[in-house]
Design goal:
Blueprint (H helix, E strand, L loop, with lengths): L9 E4 L5 H14 L5 H14 L4 E3 L1 E5 L11 E12 L6 E9 L7 H11 L2 H9 L3 H9 L3
Parallel strand pairs: 1-4, 3-5
Antiparallel strand pairs: 2-3, 4-5
């Protein structure tokens, strides 16, 4: 897992204006490094607009993604960690850990999701991620799972 999320793919911010900005900021490292194009980022935002806040998988945790297509060149994972969570809806869908997953097909990203699910199902690890103050601490939390 530690090879999948790299320190340079972690963004820490106090707050964002809205959920769209959270997806944009969480996407920036992978977009910058050529994992996917702007169209993939737009597709992630449009998915939430069309289907609602389905990417919020638990309190404080969102995993933004879109259907694999020609706009994705590489499997990757990035993270935006916020000090103040952002609401994805008015009825309780909020997150301070916004992951972005880029998938090239329907299979290649499944191992990342399995590992991420293992970490995110551990309340202590989630709390440690929420409490982390820098990218190195976050990387160390992921390394504990290797």
């Amino acid at each position: 897992m530690a090879e999948i999320i790299r320190e340079e793919h972690i963004v820490l911010k106090n707050h964002v204006t809205d959920w769209e900005e959270s997806i944009q900021l969480a996407s920036e490292p992978l977009l910058r490094d050529g994992y996917f194009s702007q169209n993939y980022m737009d597709a992630m935002i449009n998915s939430v607009k069309e289907m609602g806040p389905y990417i919020v998988i638990a309190p404080e945790i969102a995993i933004a993604h879109a259907r694999p297509d020609e706009n994705v060149q590489q499997v990757g994972l990035s993270l935006l960690k916020l000090e103040n969570h952002i609401n994805f809806s008015e009825d309780g869908h909020y997150a301070s850990l916004i992951f972005v997953l880029s998938a090239i097909d329907n299979e290649a990203h499944l191992e990342i999701l399995r590992n991420l699910a293992t970490i995110l199902s551990d309340k202590e690890k989630v709390n440690a991620l929420i409490d982390a103050t820098n990218a190195k601490q976050i990387i160390n939390i992921f390394k504990e799972n290797d």
